[in-house]
Design a protein that fits this description.
The protein is α/β, with parallel strands linked by helices. It has helices at about 1-30, 35, 165-185, 210-220, 245-255, 275-285, 295-310, 310-315, 330-335, 340, 400-410, 430-435, 450-455, 495-500, 500-515, 530-545, and strands at about 50-55, 85, 95, 105-110, 115, 125-130, 135-140, 160, 225, 270, 320-325, 345-350, 365, 390-395, 415-420, 435-440, 460-465, 485, 545.
């Protein structure tokens, strides 16, 4: 009797550890990345927080190296290691796979059936390429589990996770960053990419090949969602004439939706806030009043509305949203919403670093004064041999820089012709086209329409400002086709310009003719023109942040 109980107790003590080990093993075997909270190979490169800002995308030095944080961006990434045929519907988790070669199995997922083609090795994470109609394995790291008896228990199986739409977007951007980085080493100042319209070349570009690759990737992938909330005339509307024309044109083209715009917010990479600061000032500001609370509070109320109605603002804290304005008060207006000021992409004419303009996330918008709304007759000029005037400026007394310029040079020199108002019968456009260099001093704010007027007239712009970031500085090397003069050197302008040799001037003149296309506002946008280049600047800023749900 006692021998029987002793043998039974001994058996229980021997089996108990084995049972515990089996339970633990089953627990780990059946744990999915979703259940355990483990990050996928795409989301693993996100830093803590809603988004992580990067350094400016420098097309000379290349994009930031994400390899250490994100294995999927490595040249030897499993991104291209296997092919999985498209499923009829997305699934959140599927079971994978039969190790028998040359066979295709249909396995039951949580939401639908998925057809899985043979792959050389098992995988756990996939990335769906909607454009090419396929799904690609990202990483293999799951352990073997049985498959409800539908496949022999001896066969190896894996858990596969299907990414959210945002994660798929971010996975594509990982590959884009790598593609741009791979284009950087080409240093011959000419793009290696074929293009029927234009091939960037020359020292005007920080890196012609990297820029061109980035531009082509933008055309393939970039999608913009325009919020529909808000009524005209304060929203979805802008002035397309006068000194504020670039703000109005940008809003107008985005509203038309013929380029880049999407009606599906989930496929968008950025979100446009369609308020016009110019129109807000026009309708809400009391003439003579110094405060702009009505304007700033209206923008704050708008952000509150879209953040409550849509999830996208709160998801990124505004980092994938942008606004555009050419009004001097735009920086102050955005300060009423801290995340708009600090996180969002602000496309501003008033690109003044002393007023919070951050070139790593904000975009410098050129100021273009279109009196009629058209560029007819404004673009082009005579050859260098027909430009007898060394330097020219005409403009009213706005700000301390112009005060210094007028005090030093106003109507005092036949080579450096500076006027507060032109003599009767003298044409402003004619003077631009008869001059070699056109002086572009800041006014009350840093931006000046004279920069683009000079480029249109093929007159070399001379930038005189403090804290101004010229447009397209992420792509263009302004030192190769313009002259930058410190405010303290205004008295030495003639000496500085006279020291530029004829050979160097001719090179600068050729370059200004080439970059001219990037500043032209065509009635209907053309590739590489003002509209496309502004969108490209926004695209670069979006590449510099990574968003997660």
């Amino acid at each position: 009797m006692w021998d029987f109980h002793r043998r039974r107790l001994t058996t229980i003590l021997i089996l108990l550890p084995l049972v515990l080990i089996s339970v633990i093993a089953c627990k780990f075997s059946f744990s999915s990345p979703l259940a355990s909270g483990k990050k996928s190979s795409v989301s693993s490169f996100f830093d803590s927080g809603k988004y992580q800002s990067e350094k400016p995308l420098n097309l000379v030095e290349g994009v930031d190296d994400f390899h250490a944080q994100n294995p999927a961006s490595s040249p030897n990434s499993p991104l291209d290691s296997a092919y999985i045929s498209p499923s009829p519907e997305p699934v959140s988790e599927i079971l994978y796979w039969d190790d028998q070669p040359q066979e295709e199995k249909i396995l039951q997922g949580n939401n639908s059936f998925v057809y899985i083609s043979p792959s050389p090795e098992p995988a756990s994470d996939i990335y769906r390429d909607d454009q090419n109609g396929k799904e690609v394995i990202l990483q293999s790291n799951s352990s073997s589990i049985p498959v409800n008896g539908s496949i022999d228990s001896n066969h190896e199986t894996q858990t596969i996770r299907i990414y959210s739409r945002l994660e798929k977007i971010e996975a594509r951007l990982v590959k884009v960053r790598q593609a741009i980085k791979e284009a950087v080493p080409n240093r011959n100042m000419t793009s290696l990419h074929e293009d029927p319209d234009y091939v960037p070349r020359g020292p005007m570009y920080r890196n012609a090949n990297a820029f061109h690759r980035s531009y082509l990737e933008m055309e393939k992938l970039f999608k913009i969602y325009v919020y529909k909330e808000g009524d005209r005339p304060l929203f979805h509307n802008g002035i397309c004439k006068s000194i504020y024309s670039t703000e109005g044109r940008l809003i107008s083209e985005l509203e038309k939706g013929t380029l880049y715009k999407t009606e599906d917010p989930d496929e968008a990479l950025v979100y446009f806030l369609p308020f016009s600061v110019v129109m807000l000032v026009e309708y809400l500001h009391i003439p003579g009043a110094r405060e702009i609370h009505a304007i700033g509070n209206t923008v704050a109320d708008y952000i509150k509305v879209i953040s409550q109605k849509h999830r996208f603002w709160n998801r990124s804290q505004g980092a994938d949203h942008f606004m555009a304005s050419c009004h001097d008060w735009a920086p102050r207006t955005t300060s009423y919403v801290p995340n708009l000021f600090n996180n969002a992409i602000r496309v501003l004419c008033n690109a003044n670093t002393s007023e919070g303009f951050n070139p790593s996330k904000d975009v410098s918008l050129p100021e273009i004064n279109l009196l009629t709304g058209e560029i007819t007759g404004l673009v082009g000029g005579p050859s260098p041999s027909k430009r007898p005037i060394l330097a020219f400026f005409a403009g009213r007394l706005h700000g301390h820089i112009r005060y210094l310029l007028l005090e030093q040079w106003k109507e005092k020199d036949s080579d450096v012709q500076v006027y507060e108002s032109l003599p009767k019968g003298v044409s402003y456009q004619t003077m631009l086209r008869r001059s070699r260099f056109c002086l572009c001093p800041s006014g009350y704010e840093v931006a000046s329409p004279r920069v683009v007027e000079a480029i249109y007239s093929e007159c070399i712009p001379v930038l005189i400002s403090d804290g101004y970031i010229p447009p397209l500085s992420d792509v263009l090397n302004w030192k190769t086709f313009s002259v930058q003069v410190d405010v303290k050197d205004i008295a030495n302008i003639k000496t500085i310009l006279m020291s530029i040799s004829q050979r160097q001037y001719l090179r600068m003149h050729r370059r200004i003719k080439q970059v001219q296309r990037h500043f032209v506002m065509n009635p209907s946008p053309k590739r590489f023109d003002f509209f496309h280049m502004m969108i490209h600047s926004i695209w670069l800023r979006r590449l510099n942040v990574r968003i997660e749900d």
